[in-house]
């Protein structure tokens, strides 16, 4: 029995890069896949059906079942229709992989309103809208007395978790996705829905040319290493795993441990009295996690 037999998945942004690898991995393990991709440029311009069409053809060549959807995931109505299309085409929906994304990097003082709005919309609303519509479908199934296991895998980023300079729009949206995933896991648990997020690192058009990688590094930066975790999280074998944020790439999988309470002091109603105490707790608090100091992230 294959890992995902009888399960249906939507993968957003599945025409290229990570989404393509996720769609193929899910299909290889028996899932029906609705391949969503707007076919935009890496900065969110234009549309093109070809990438999604090619992935559908690849899945069908493998003997799997797939259908194409080319809507913008951040369009409320279109994302509802995407969920309906998966259910109408394959008879249900058990897996939602929110992966579509774009970049418009700039230092915050130079960032335009449009660069902020578009990146936040594609990532944050483009994750929330499909989650909302799929969540309503699962709620309806659960209220109908059915017991089932549904799985949502959202895509966050190290940029958010480790505060990348030059990406206030992207990091803010991706941090929102990480926290949204944990809130959603708590809200949807009662309907049999698990929600997790992962921060991938892979060589795609979004990251290409960042550095000259060695062949060994390039091998570990193949998206497929991340798709393995996506397929497992999508399966019933991961039934007890929800509300987690993972780091994932060819060098391993790790669980992020969220914000923690640090040193504290008593509150006051007089701001002139708290300086010494505040300086002290800041001195004793652990520094924020920093991507540049973490050797595991930079082998
Ligand atoms: N590559 C990495 O190392 C890395 C690191 C951290 C996070 N991510 C995230 O992983 C996800 C996939 O990125 P990738 O590296 O594969 O990039 P990519 O550019 O190769 O693929 C993204 C896909 O999303 C599609 N897309 C963009 N906007 C869309 C929209 N509104 N509706 C539907 N489809 C849309 C694009 O057409 C494209 O095919 C993104 O969310 C990205 O932010 C990637």
Task: Characterise this structure.
- By secondary structure, this protein is α/β, with parallel strands linked by helices.
- The chain has a single domain, classed as Rossmann fold, CATH 3.40.50.720.
- 41% of the residues lie in helices and 13% in strands.
- It has nine helices and eight strands.
- It has helices at 17-28, 50-61, 76-90, 113-143, 158-161, 168-188, 215-220, 224-234, 275-284; strands at residues 8-11, 32-36, 66-69, 95-98, 150-155, 193-200, 245-249, 252-255.
- Strands 3-2-1-4-5-6-7-8 form an eight-stranded mixed β-sheet, sandwiched between helices.
- α4 (113-143) links the parallel β4 (95-98) and β5 (150-155).
- α3 (76-90) runs parallel beside α4 and α4 (113-143) packs parallel to α6.
- The mean pLDDT is 95.
- It binds nicotinamide-adenine-dinucleotide.
- Nicotinamide-adenine-dinucleotide is lined by residues 12-13, 15-19, 36-40, 42, 44, 51, 72-74, 99-102, 122, 126, 155, 157, 199-202, 204-207.
Short structural summary:
The protein is an alpha/beta fold and 299 residues long. The chain is built from 9 helices and 8 strands. The chain has a single domain (8-260), classed as 3-Layer(aba) Sandwich (Rossmann fold), CATH 3.40.50.
